[in-house]
Prior knowledge:
Elements: E1 17-18, H1 19-25, E2 30-33, E3 43-47, E4 52-57, H2 68-81, E5 89-94, E6 97-103, E7 115-118, H3 119-123, E8 136-137, H4 138-152, H5 156-175, E9 187-192, E10 199-203, H6 219-227, H7 229-237, E11 243-244, H8 252-257, H9 262-273, H10 275-287, H11 290-301, H12 307-332
Parallel strand pairs: 1-5, 8-11
Antiparallel strand pairs: 2-3, 3-4, 4-6, 5-6, 7-9, 9-10
Amino acid sequence: MDSKILLEYRDKESGRIDCDKLESENPKLTTFDEDRGTPRRDKKWIFFDYKKVLVRNEYMNKNNVLYTTYQELVFEELAKQVNFPCAHYDIGKRGDKNCVLSDNILDTPENKGLSMMSLRELMDQLKDVEYYESTYNITDAFKAIGNHCKCMGLDKSIQENVMKNFCKMQVLDCFLSSSDRHVENISFIYGKDKNTGKDVFRLAPLYDNELSCGVEEPKEKMEECTNDFMQAKLTANLQNVFATVPENEMSDESKRRNKNNPTGALLEFCMDLDEDIEDFTQACYDNLNMALAINNVEKRIGTKLPQLYKEFLVGNYMERKSMIGKTIDEYYK
């Protein structure tokens, strides 16, 4: 059965794919429950002819279940605007809960026959590294990547490319305040290319993007931000990503410029590494367009997104962009 059948079960009013109706009308569909990951949400795989689709219930925090399923689609559209690989998502409904549907990353033609491992798995191979529930050291991540490449005898150019894309991911996450990109939500694809026999090691497309752009804020805070400029500015400026830069890796100028600004320190650290990362940072500043991303999602699902959610997203991103713009200007002075 072709996975395109999913689109036939999209509800015209909600824009969501009716997973219960899909299963009841197609009893020969193969499915199995997924018991890994967050225990507070149900996960199920649906098998189609050429790929698997994961159905995952909404984030089970009562403050923000309203919008997190939409956010996966919005983030995907934003990633497209700067040509950064991202998993493909759609929205659905199972029982009385909203859910997201995502294609299996390893089912795409370029990833067939390959495997995937998380940053945590790479870092677990090292001694004396620290990562916590809310942060990890970016230089430790680099050590883990380098250690894997050395152990596997990979070409230096492969390692450099992975590190460069890892930094671009950090830049994108800074712009979009991705607050859930911990060491288990970053993965790498590896193995032997079945056609060429060459070694493969690269950053996997981004996934689990539901807590980005401030969507973890409760509805009351979103309402406050849409009505109060200063609250909107404060909220956007306080959103940080997981990766941190140790002080001994920062220049004196960066320490001065980014005192109490971990986002600025991370951006400068990444831009210092390669001119291509500088160019990507500028491309994010120039090309990321929240209103356009929202519009594209609405076209795809055939219905409007909640007004409060849209107003908050646009306002939050514009404040975030303004903050990062100041960091970039200071960096080049």
